[in-house]
Design a protein that fits this description.
Elements: E1 4-8, H1 15-27, E2 32-34, H2 46-54, H3 69-73, E3 75-80, E4 98-99, H4 110-131
Parallel strand pairs: 1-2, 1-3, 3-4
Helix pairs in contact: 1-4, 2-4
Length: 139
Amino acid sequence: MTKNVLFTCVKNSGETQITETFFVNFTSSRFYVFSPETITSSQQNLIVIQVMDKIEMGIPDQIPQFLSDSLIENYLIFLNMWYMPKEFCFSLFIVGIFNWSIIDPEKKLIDKVRIIRNVMKSKVVNLIYFMMGKPNVIF
């Protein structure tokens, strides 16, 4: 059975979509990958779309989805993008969740978003190695 990989954040306007895009491109769709949010937002971050287009990895035109019980029930890896108070993100109560402490690209200048993108790419590559059972990988 294929398992879900979840990349969550409070508002999915950027960092989780970058992470999902890298993960899907690097794993050839061997997993069901979702980047749900815990607070509804209505639009994508245009600067995030621009920095991903620059490296020819376009973010799908999608409305961010909400984190639901059905997504949580069948996950293999569950990652939260950055630390936040638990009252803002119930996903922090889930056993086995990893926290990456990524800086939110919202309201950041394009140069800062490029740096965030590159950090996330490195973390995704390390995550994939970890999932493949490669030793000595920290994500």
